Amino acid sequence: MTGFETGALEELRQVESELNTRWPETKIEPSLDRIRALADILGDPQASYPVVHIGGTNGKTSTSRMVDALLTRIGLRTGRYTSPHLQLATERISVDGAPISPERYVEIYRDIEPYLSIVDARGDVPMSKFEVLTGMAFAAFADAPVDVGVIEVGMGGSWDATNIADGRVAVITPIGLDHVEYLGGDLAGIAQEKAGIIKPGAVALLAKQEPAAEQVLLRRCAEVDATVARLGSEFGVIQRDVAVGGQVLRLQGLAGEYDEVFLPLHGAHQAANAALALAAVEAFFGAGPDRQLDVEAVREAFATATSPGRLERVRTAPTVLVDAAHNPHGAEALAKALDEEFGFRKLVAVVGVMQEKDAVGILSALEPVVQEVVLTANSSPRAMDPDLLAGVAIPIFGEDRMVVQPHLDDAIEEAVRLAEESDDGDIVSGGGVVVTGSVVTAGDARALFGKEPS
């Protein structure tokens, strides 16, 4: 599957097996005590570099990768922590814009492993897997050492393990309903939790939000005396033109205008993520009328930006796209991009979702742009049974527009066949397939098409 040595991957699997004995990322006990205790033992590595902290519901990873690309092109050494991973755990911890090696991942874990039992013994609840991974990332970045940490929130904000970092810049991507079993179903309440990453005196960059969420975020900024800038007000996308392989943007930053910016990613949501990333980097350097970033450096950075598993093309003839949309908000953004930027004669979706996700919302968002759907399951033990998913899909698509294929590889093969088939059964060109519904589904599909973790 990858170019890594078998021995290194085996050691990585062993470490992952040990980490998987801990609470998974889907189970939390709201407290920063455990991660603070580990960080204290390690010498507070997260305090040894400035941090750009990125929270929200959708777009966090893409925005993080763009911030990383900009900072790297400008000349800083970066550490980037994102979650979840698509294919390999090493994707979560990147230095110099690339995932650390399996050998380094294992080394970092073994370095901090002796201290985990000390923290575990101090309380009733041992450290979760995500808390350990966060400690590993903080330590890896301090060891590198990096000039700046680009840190993505795992879930929520206030109680997320990443929140012991003191972000001088806080970025809040669009907030929607997700993880309702942990964060609740009230948008204002979710925004309150996510607003917790906005620290006293920080600069807060806000994506466009629903009024209920925006009100909460602005109140938090006022309470902690944070400087606030909003997409569509202080910065934004002036112009967006669809181009081959992506889009060309004219962006209004905090410190000036940046034109002829090619972004090799699809969708208006990615243009908004680019504006957010640009403003975050400007804020990091102290944006002002005379502090505009070098326009050519910005162009070069965005031209190299990647976001695996986000409307990523993994095959042509027919085109197969992979997208990690796993909630209704993400599925709506995906559907809009498919409708606006791709002219498929026929589009077939392969959908595999997790048990706890809003399958109705995801399928309903996709239905207007998809002619047929193939329902399947991904490799996660939490994957929704395809037959149950079919029961959800019938009222939305009708039985004539859906197929059930329990295994993802078979599902993709079936979708390709359907995409190439005309109404009278002939094989014709112009069809497309999109594989979506979960980060795990996207990662599994990437692996099936031979894509390397990145």
UniProtKB/TrEMBL annotation:
<keyword id="KW-0547">Nucleotide-binding</keyword>
<feature type="domain" description="Mur ligase C-terminal">
    <location>
        <begin position="309"/>
        <end position="423"/>
    </location>
</feature>
<dbReference type="InterPro" id="IPR036615">
    <property type="entry name" value="Mur_ligase_C_dom_sf"/>
</dbReference>
<dbReference type="GO" id="GO:0005524">
    <property type="term" value="F:ATP binding"/>
</dbReference>
<dbReference type="InterPro" id="IPR004101">
    <property type="entry name" value="Mur_ligase_C"/>
</dbReference>
<dbReference type="InterPro" id="IPR013221">
    <property type="entry name" value="Mur_ligase_cen"/>
</dbReference>
<keyword id="KW-0436">Ligase</keyword>
<dbReference type="GO" id="GO:0004326">
    <property type="term" value="F:tetrahydrofolylpolyglutamate synthase activity"/>
</dbReference>
<dbReference type="GO" id="GO:0046872">
    <property type="term" value="F:metal ion binding"/>
</dbReference>
<feature type="domain" description="Mur ligase central">
    <location>
        <begin position="138"/>
        <end position="281"/>
    </location>
</feature>
<dbReference type="GO" id="GO:0008841">
    <property type="term" value="F:dihydrofolate synthase activity"/>
</dbReference>
<protein>
    <recommendedName>
        <fullName>Dihydrofolate synthase/folylpolyglutamate synthase</fullName>
        <ecNumber>6.3.2.12</ecNumber>
        <ecNumber>6.3.2.17</ecNumber>
    </recommendedName>
</protein>
<dbReference type="InterPro" id="IPR001645">
    <property type="entry name" value="Folylpolyglutamate_synth"/>
</dbReference>
<dbReference type="Pfam" id="PF02875">
    <property type="entry name" value="Mur_ligase_C"/>
</dbReference>
<comment type="similarity">
    <text>Belongs to the folylpolyglutamate synthase family.</text>
</comment>
<comment type="subunit">
    <text>Monomer.</text>
</comment>
<dbReference type="GO" id="GO:0046656">
    <property type="term" value="P:folic acid biosynthetic process"/>
</dbReference>
<dbReference type="InterPro" id="IPR036565">
    <property type="entry name" value="Mur-like_cat_sf"/>
</dbReference>
<keyword id="KW-0479">Metal-binding</keyword>
<dbReference type="Pfam" id="PF08245">
    <property type="entry name" value="Mur_ligase_M"/>
</dbReference>
<keyword id="KW-0460">Magnesium</keyword>
<keyword id="KW-0067">ATP-binding</keyword>
<dbReference type="GO" id="GO:0005737">
    <property type="term" value="C:cytoplasm"/>
</dbReference>
<comment type="pathway">
    <text>Cofactor biosynthesis; tetrahydrofolate biosynthesis; 7,8-dihydrofolate from 2-amino-4-hydroxy-6-hydroxymethyl-7,8-dihydropteridine diphosphate and 4-aminobenzoate: step 2/2.</text>
</comment>
<comment type="pathway">
    <text>Cofactor biosynthesis; tetrahydrofolylpolyglutamate biosynthesis.</text>
</comment>
<keyword id="KW-0289">Folate biosynthesis</keyword>
